[in-house]
Model the fold of this input.
Amino acid sequence: MSHTKYHRVLLKISGEGLCRPQGFGIDGEQLHRIAGELKTVVDTGVQLALVVGGGNFIRGTELARTSHIPPATGHYMGMLGTVINALAIQETLEQIGLVTRVQSAIAVDRVCEKFIRRRALRHLEKGRVVILAGGTGNPFVTTDCCAALRGTELGADIIMKATKVDGVYSADPKKDPSATRYTTISFDEAIGRNLQVMDATAFALCRDQKLPIRVFSIVKPGALKRIVLGEDEGTLVHV
Ligand code: UDP
Done:
């Protein structure tokens, strides 16, 4: 075990991290790569709760805009997509020797547990990776909100938001080559500068709860572990 900066972390992984760039569904190679990164962190002794997105399958808002499916149904379909991702991550993590439990906010009794806070805490204390599926169980929000809520109620020290960009930039680095990355930024400054760190509702919740967020690149090997060990990576959003 290494000396870690955090005792318990909540990691949010978007569905797009599980498929090929601009792809759909699940890609085995991406899953194995992410699982390997997660293992290095769990091996440090840190307690890990994972919130998985579902954007590699369905985003309710998009589906409703482009089809006859009513928004609420689209959102429920999106939540079910996160359950599929959670099962894929579970199997991949267990193949490399981690012990995991999937808990879903939407009951899918045949395949996973329901989200029960005290039970999730017990799993974490035993060193199991808790994979949180089904988002919040409510439509019209995103899995970022789930990360903020669960991070708060499970007493995580930090929310780690895995993205394809290595932090929060002053402008979109793909469009503006002069954009610079913040190493740290306060919640108020991020709001003042209109920077999109995560879903606005989730962001407000983290700010109210004084729960810091670290935005980092899931594509960069070793970044996750370096953060857990207290090294500088990505952007820290602080109170
Ligand atoms: N969703 C929802 N309630 C939640 C979480 C998710 O309705 O608490 C739906 C919503 O339609 C969302 C989709 O599930 O677009 C997939 O989640 P998200 O967009 O957060 O996935 P990500 O972009 O992180 O892969």
Observations:
- The chain has one domain: 8-230.
